[in-house]
Amino acid sequence: MGNGQGVGGIYIAGHRGMVGSAIRRALESAGEANVLSATSKDLDLRNATAVDEFLAANRPTQVYLAAAKVGGIQANNAYPAEFIHDNLAIQDNVIHAAWRHGVQRLLFLGSSCIYPRDTKQPMREEVLLTGPLEPTNEPYAIAKVAGIKLCESYNRQYGTDFRSVMPTNLYGPGDNFDLETSHVLPALIRKTHEARVTGAESIPVWGSGRPMREFLHVDDMAAACVHVMNLDRATWQAHTDPRCSHLNVGTGEDLSIGDLARLVADVVGFEGQLAFDPDRPDGTPRKLLDVSRLKGLGWQASIGLREGIEQTYQWYLENPA
Ligand SMILES: NC(=O)C1=CN([C@@H]2O[C@H](COP(=O)(O)OP(=O)(O)OC[C@H]3O[C@@H](n4cnc5c(N)ncnc54)[C@H](OP(=O)(O)O)[C@@H]3O)[C@@H](O)[C@H]2O)C=CC1
Ligand SMILES: C[C@H]1O[C@H](OP(=O)(O)OP(=O)(O)OC[C@H]2O[C@@H](n3cnc4c(=O)[nH]c(N)nc43)[C@H](O)[C@@H]2O)[C@@H](O)[C@@H](O)C1=O
């Protein structure tokens, strides 16, 4: 806990998670030595007093807020209370304490599920709060919308520099491969690999296979986070609005879940069938991000989907749970 180097430095909340660990790798490879972190066991971010004391003692200059209760469609559906409560508490505590202890810049990570379920595609930042949300993840999405509004409210009232990025579906090294709580891509990698090894004739794929999703490799996500954090304030303000300040982060391209499953099968070398399971939910029909705002700020994704899946499959093979 703490960095052992006195006050200052960059605090990554959630540094052991898929995104937090990628941000840490990105900062370290850029030569940043003063990175501050704490596990959830040492610092439960739902505890306001503990968070306040931690930031008072360490006084970081920057905070990456990548700690959250995270999961796929099934986990969101099964644990809605935890998804709204934990995320509201974590965000509220970290953002409030960051203001109290003079953090110069904070980056909050939201999610593309903040946007209305049935809205124009690709989704521009301005469609926020223009329609009803997807029911399978509404509590999580409400918390993420509140996170954006916390940042904007502190900026407007206290003059802070708190920024938000909204990632599309992410994947990569460090992902969660648990079949009940994971997102679709790690689940497909695991199911397909196990089917190939056991010689199974088919793999179960939840839902109809028709929903469309966009996937961004976590190293691209981390690079985008560092890019947005490092934009000077005048540039960031020129490209955002005080009441619509969040930035979409994605590739700008999507594919159907059926096509994704076929791509994973090809990478893994599985030649069996896909067995779609209509008893599992499809969730949002499509959520493709309009990434032109971030592109205008000089950042775009660089890791192709096939290349990213190949690299993640290799990581999965080398890091058995
Ligand atoms: N994965 C995805 O597809 C997407 C993720 N996002 C967002 O990106 C961010 C990072 O997600 P990701 O890295 O995938 O998630 P992970 O589940 O991999 O990591 C989450 C991290 O949050 C920490 N954490 C959770 N609860 C607490 C708590 N009560 N106190 C302290 N720390 C806590 C955990 O710490 P510890 O390990 O110490 O327990 C963990 O390291 C989140 O905000 C998420 O909503 C957005 C869109 C898509
Ligand atoms: C990132 C995003 O993640 C969540 O939303 P989601 O995109 O719907 O998440 P998902 O990756 O779990 O599913 C994508 C699609 O894929 C299908 N699908 C097929 N087979 C499996 C499968 O085996 N596992 C899973 N999980 N899904 C499967 C599944 O039925 C769905 O149609 C949000 O709750 C929210 O947390 C959020 O922000």
TrEMBL record:
Site entry (Important for catalytic activity), positions: S111, C113
Keywords: Isomerase, Multifunctional enzyme, NADP, Oxidoreductase
SUPFAM superfamilies assigned: NAD(P)-binding Rossmann-fold domains
Tagged with keyword Hydrolase: no
Record-annotated NAD-dependent epimerase/dehydratase domain positions: 10-233
Catalytic activity: GDP-beta-L-fucose + NADP(+) = GDP-4-dehydro-alpha-D-rhamnose + NADPH + H(+)
Enzyme Commission identifier(s): 1.1.1.271
Pathway: Nucleotide-sugar biosynthesis; GDP-L-fucose biosynthesis via de novo pathway; GDP-L-fucose from GDP-alpha-D-mannose: step 2/2
Residues holding substrate: K191, W206, R213, D282
Sequence positions that bind NADP(+): 14-20, 109-112, 144, 167-170, 183
Enzyme class (EC, first level): oxidoreductase
Active site: Y140 (proton donor/acceptor)
InterPro entries with a match to the protein in the record: Epimerase_deHydtase, GDP_fucose/colitose_synth, NAD(P)-bd_dom_sf
Pfam families reported in the protein's UniProt record: Epimerase
Protein family: Belongs to the NAD(P)-dependent epimerase/dehydratase family. Fucose synthase subfamily.
UniProt cross-references to HAMAP family, sorted A to Z: GDP_fucose_synth (MF_00956)
Described function: Catalyzes the two-step NADP-dependent conversion of GDP-4-dehydro-6-deoxy-D-mannose to GDP-fucose, involving an epimerase and a reductase reaction.
Name of the molecule in the record: GDP-L-fucose synthase
Species annotation: Spiribacter pallidus
Gene name for this UniProt entry: fcl
